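Appendix B. Raw example, untouched.
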Amino acid sequence: MADAGTVTALFRASTAHSPSYSTLSRAAEGGRPLIDFCIPCNPYFPTPEMFDELGGRLRDILTYYPSSADTVTAELSAVLGLNPRTVAMGNGSTELITWIDHLLVRDALAVPVPTFGRWTDQPMETGKRVDMFPLPQAAGFALDPAAFVDFVRARGSRTAVICNPNNPDGGLLPRHSVLALLDALQDLDLVVVDESFLEFADAEPQPTVVDEAVLRPNVIVLRSLGKNFGLHGVRFGYLVANPGLAGKVRAALPKWNLNSFAETVVFMLKQHRHAYDLSLHQVRRDRQEMIWHLARLPGLVTYPSHGNFVYVRLPDGVDGAELRDRLLEEHGILIRECGNKIGSSSRFLRLVVRPSADVQRLLGALEQTLPSGAAGGLPVPYTSGTYTSGTAAVDRLVMRA
């Protein structure tokens, strides 16, 4: 069992993000492995054969400098069928978000909430105004593009960001709706479409707007290779934009911002592309099965997802932080409680899609931990001007924006 006092204290000490898996593992009594429903990894990629290959090359990877970022970017672009002049690679998507903020965001950025925390935290840290557009629970946290455009106009924001699919709820706008949004906001300084989880979506054959980003003067598409490939520790992501925008970001990046692990994985992709495609197919199947099982638990509300995670609302009276601690202490299961996400509250969890055996462990633990006979129901209706997330501090941030 985990050392309850030590491990749960790590969550209380972190106000913006969950403690890392390594930190939690070190704190766990006896180093007991955790079943991780918190970090959105791809459990099927890289394959065991790829890990064996990486292990066999570990000495060289750790010993020698990587090639230049231009070399790695050229190889990734060849794999993806992109012009390398339209691509900038970063040490994780977070590095790219940081440079986008520093270089391209002037005074205000509009973004729907809840969403990936760096899109609210990063501009706040540099003194920008963040205009937060609350996604209504009653609509399953779906983004209404026309309402968001009206919000951007009313606030006078010069930069707009959407995550598609959105994190933490997994909501997806179809390609035609994203294009309509880009058309409506073509006069802004910048519109960012964060497609970090789009590879897991299957609602349409080609949902990405990468092909449009390279043609438009004010559009950036962001992608996270770590999330797609299940390699968060490698830290690599990329953006796609017209050559002028991509070049501006690329010129600002540190000379050696990509490590040898990132280079090695990128140069392995061509021969393992089929295995990667199969992994995405399996994650999508697991997602549907997981949603079906979770929806059968009394009182638990599940939301449609196109990412490799599922957003759920807990039954009335259940506190997510307390549930998180109990699942960790009593069952060795790590979950993402969303009380520290702007626009969310402690009644919501983001549960990563995992293989069936792990999901059965989670379901059994939830059945033992959640109150029996909990009342179900629809999400609380949303009325403009009376938004409430369930957390007073979050409400003040959203309404002040």
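End of appendix B.
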